[in-house]
Amino acid sequence: MHFYVTLLFLLCWLSLFAMLCAQPSILTPPVDATVCLNSTAEFNCSTDGQALVWRVNGTGADAFPELKAIRKYLNPGVEEILIVPGMYKFNYTTFTCVGGAVGSLESAMSDPAYLTVQGPPSPPSELTATPLNETSIKLTWSVPPGVLDE
């Protein structure tokens, strides 16, 4: 009986050791987003580690009070959605998530996701109205400088 208790203890200890020492990984990395000015972007990240933190241009996201994170605990792991307001302040900003284990120096970092905030379009240039008949006109214009046709 003593042998089985010792074996059970050893198996539990090894299981706990493996969980604490395992290299965490990013399961769902954030992806690039493009939003209109004054709308919001959402970046999703999940890790099989016990902790998840966001980095904004390499700085901790807690330095930006405009950001809001919604956390959900998985089994095992953590998932967070970072909600970012569409402000010019965050245009061309990088967002990365770091997953780790509590009490461990091991961590995993996602590739950066980029946010692009688009403002209102530039007005057309060289706008011309040509009368066609009493109730119709033809409008022509040029694309503003710096705007690419797609």
Give a verbal description of the structure.
- The chain has 150 residues and is mainly beta.
- It is 13% helix and 47% strand.
- It has one helix spanning 2-21; strands at residues 26-28, 33-36, 40-47, 51-56, 59-60, 68-73, 78-85, 93-100, 107-109, 113-118, 125-133, 136-142.
- The strands form three sheets. Strands 2, 4, 5, 8, 9 and 10 form a six-stranded mixed sheet that branches. It has a four-stranded antiparallel sheet with strand order 1-3-7-6, with no helix packed on it. A two-stranded antiparallel sheet has the order 11-12.
Number of strands: 12
Helical content band: 10-25%
Radius of gyration: 26 Å
Distance between the termini: 75 Å
Number of helices: 1
Order of helices and strands: HEEEEEEEEEEEE
Strand content of the residues, in percent? Answer: over 45%
Arithmetic mean pLDDT: 83
Which structural class matches the secondary elements?
Answer: mainly beta
Largest sheet: 6 strands, mixed
Shape: elongated
Unreliable runs: 7-19
